[in-house]
Protein: L-arabinose transport system permease AraQ
Organism: Lacticaseibacillus nasuensis JCM 17158
Amino acid sequence: MGDNKLFKLIVRVFIGFGVILSLFPFYWMFVMASKPNSEIYKTPPSLTLGNELFKNIHTVFTQTTFFHSVLNTLFIAITSTCLILFFDSLAGFAFGKLKFKGKAFLFTFLMGTMMIPGQLNIIPSFYLMDKIGWVGSYKALIIPGMANAFGIFWIRSYCTDAIPDSLLESAKLDGSSIFRTYRSIALPIMKPALAFLALYSFMGSWNDYMWPLIILNDEKKYTLMLALTQLKGLFTTNYPLVITGALLATLPLLLIFVLFSKQLIAGITDGAVKE
């Protein structure tokens, strides 16, 4: 019993230490955001909060189109996430539970696309967007990413174990179409996996910087990540302002994570391999 208690104590100490290490970067953002630019290079650095936080926040709001860019980013992120959930769940269900010719080859090819670095797709993707006249529009940020290999793989892995074949056979005997079976039977079972995929996709769209930088050419359409680049000077940069902007951009994601953390954890644990 004594050894068991000691082991639990050691585990809790390591977990607590890990939590502190995980939270420290966020605390450090608060510290740097509360300092004037003159103290940013101070050695040794101060670990205590300064008194410039609210001033820096006000400056971020006045020097950037912060709230307008937040609305732009929300529109893009929500629309992209909804499309990803629909197409990835539909394709994942098909790969996981349906039988059709070429299924193994198509899935192998799909997994192969995950090995291609995203940077290699930038030039051909931009060329295609330019040819169809989508440069400068939100369609170029939403449509090309409305289905992705990771989401299909995630839903397919979940459906394989979570949806019993007998349930699908019963629906087929009752005359249910494939789409109705997907809508009425598969989707409710997929909810934990869809919750994780929604959070993952939303955060990816929210934090995306490179593709909007290449596509968008109108400041009124800038996403939040692009709007924050307005804080950088031509010759000098006020780093506390930049960090303050990054902090404000991170807060909505933290709020979403806190609100939906249970669904996220459920999606990860329920998606584990079952014996």
